[in-house]
Every structure is written in C-alpha cells, then in structure tokens.
Amino acid sequence: MKIERIEAFPVSIPLNHTYKDANRIETHSRDVVVKISASGGAVGWGAGSPRTFPTGETQASAIKVLEEILLPLLGGKDPFELEAIHREMGAAIPFHFAPKSAIDCALYDLQGRVLDQPVYNLLGGKIRDEMPSFDILPLETPEITAEIASAARAEGTMAFKIKMNRDLKTSVARVRAVREAVGGEAMLVVDANTTWTSKLAISACSMIEEYDITMVEQPVSGHDIDGMEFITRNTRVRICADESMRPDYMAELMRRRAADVVNIKVNREGGLLPCKKAAAMAEMHGIEGLCGSVIQGVLIDAAAAHLFASTPGIIYNESGKAPAWHDLDIATGLRVENGMVKVPEGPGLGVEIDEKVLRKFLSAD
Ligand SMILES: [Mg+2]
Questions:
Q1: Which CATH architecture has domain 122-350?
Q2: What is the distance in A from the centroid of ligand 1 to the CA of 293?
Q3: pLDDT tens, residue by residue, 215-234
Q4: How far is the CA of 134 from the centre of ligand 1 (A)?
Q5: CB 320 within 8 A of CB 293
Q6: Distance in Å, CA 5 to ligand 1 centroid
Q7: What is the Å distance from ligand 1's center to 211 Cα?
Q8: Is 179 in a helix, a strand, or coil?
C-alpha cells in the first residue's frame, strides 16, 4: 500500500463561548487538518492545533511547513511505516509538532480503517472505555467562575481546572469560591500557565492546600526546569508539567523528577506515537500522566481518547471538551455523557468528517 495523495487545510471552528486564561483569549479552535489517501481508496484524517504559546506555531506556519517540507516526504510511502516517517520528519525539520501530529493521527486513522480496527488496538489495546474530563474554568472573577462551575457540576462534571495568574489574592479567592460551589467530592486542579515564580508558587500552594487541590499545573516558565524541581521538592501539592512537557525538555524534566504529573498533549508531543513514548518514559520515572488538550476540535479529541484508552500511566484526562465547546464541528461521533468521555469504537479514530463543514470553516491566521 502506498500513500497517493495528501492535502492540508487550516480550519477555524467557532467556540460557543470565549476562552480566557493568563496568556490569551480565544474565539475559535484553530486547527490544521490533514487528509491522506492511499492506493486502494483508503483515506485517513488527522489534525493538530498549532499554538503561538508555548511552541511558537500558527496555522499559517503549520500549513507552510506541511506544504513545503512534510507532505512532500510522504508521497509513495507505506502508511504503516510510521516510525520511519517520524524519523524522516524529524530529520527534515525539528519542532513543528502540530503539523507532525496531524500527519501521525491521519496515518493512524488510515491504518485503522484499512484493518477495520479502532486506533486503540494499534496502541496496545484498550484498558478503559471512558474517562472523566476536567472542565476548564476561564480566568474570570471568583463569583463568575463559581457560577460556571456550579452549572457544570449540576450536569455531572466532577473535575475542574481553575486558571490562575499573578494576582494571588483573587486567584486564591477563585479556588475557594469554586470549592464551595462544587462541594468536597469534586476534583480541583489549578493551572498557573507559567505566571508565577518559584517562591510565589510555594506561597500559592500553601494558601490553596486547604481546598484539597489534586495538582498545580505549570507554576513557572516552561524552560525553568530548575524552578519546577525546586517547587516539586518543596510543596506537598502535586506539581504538573504542561508548558515544560515539550519533546525538547521532557527527558531532563523526567530525569530530575521535576514534576509529579506530566500533561501529555497529542499535538505538542508530535502525534500519538511520540505520546506513547512520552507516557512510557513517565511511567518508568514514577510520574503520573494527564491526557491533555488545548482549544481543539473533535478530530484531535478523538485521538486523545484513543491515547487515554490505551495508556495505563495516564491517570487524569482533560481532553474531550470539543463537543461541548463547539455548536458545529468538522468531525462528529465523539460522545461525552455526564462528564465522561467515551472512547470511540469505530474503525480508525472512530469519528467522521463532514467535508462541507470543513470547507465552511476554512481559514488562516
Ligand atoms: Mg496548562
């Protein structure tokens, strides 16, 4: 079997509410979508979400890298030779993980459809059918944040991620308000999105510890592995690496056990195959995994669901929000019920693309 045709599309899917954290405001999921057609008629779809922060990618840069560098490598290749394709992509250009992820996911989707198997069976087989997802609460006043959390809790959501910034007083008030609104049983995760210093993080952790926080995510800059190690060693709250969990930092991060949890994101690690390797590395270092997501469409959430379905070291999940965050998406078929993300059961990634909707949402930065 040979890859015959590869197409790339920049797609902006409108969010049904504006997203806000310490670093940005978003109105759309801005993904790049790759369609790979092979001899015999098999087709696979995959997507990646380029992020200006923290990896310096945009839709326009991702499309340029795909069209000029990555897609020309694929013509005539066997779509099952994923390791060889990853090696060649890495040799052609470092970084640019979102476009590489779109190719990786499209190849897995294609392989699954050829074999009539869900992708989780290509990743080691399924160990769970569903997983709860964190509801990500926007960086709003404590009162508004608590109202949003309370409404989601009433609909069954049991896990919440609270965004924080340098305004510690308001940030701590936000945590207190959410804990009071959702009750003692719900899981609370806090995300500082790199806005603290090491000492500020130690203070913040001691101030929020009483609200039973499951973890504090990325208190300091992604490159500050010293800071992550210092904080991890000097607070009782679990520390999660997100912006530090990049392919170029992760070996040192894990070797130094500079986090208790790592946020593994399909688009940032460069696809499902690199995610499985990252998860194995974390497991060997006694570090828990979180199946992460960014503001992204159903096609990427579906890939994330196959990752958490097949990876025992992933203990937490925040993917699976796309169906709730978009009234209309280019892909359908991912089910989320009562806060639980259901692993798709069809062949490939188990979701279907509506090319009419894809064309409607075509865009660039
Ligand atoms: Mg984060």
A1: Alpha-Beta Barrel (3.20)
A2: 9
A3: 999 999 999 999 999 999 99
A4: 12
A5: yes
A6: 35
A7: 20
A8: helix
DSSP label of 348:
B
Going from the Cα of 3 to the center of ligand 1, the distance in angstroms, rounded, reads 36
Q: What is the pLDDT of residues 339-352, one digit of tens each?
A: 899 999 999 999 99
User: 77-98 as b/e, with b when 16 or more CB fall inside 10 Å?
Assistant: bebbebeebbeebeeeeebbbb
User: What residues contact 210, with CB distance under 8 A and at least 6 apart?
Assistant: none
Confidence of residue 312 (pLDDT cuts 50, 70, 90): very high
Q: What is the pLDDT of residue 228?
A: 98
Beta strands in the chain (DSSP E): 3-20, 25-38, 43-48, 130-132, 135-137, 159-163, 187-191, 213-217, 239-241, 261-264, 288-291, 314-317, 331-332, 336-337, 340-342, 352-353
Per domain, the residue ranges of the chain are: 3-117+354-360, 122-350
Cα 244 to averaged position of ligand 1 atoms, centre (Å): 10
At the fourth CATH level, the homologous superfamily of domain 3-117+354-360 is Enolase-like, N-terminal domain (3.30.390.10)
Q: For ligand 1, a single-atom ion, which residues have Cβ within 5 Å?
A: 191, 217, 242
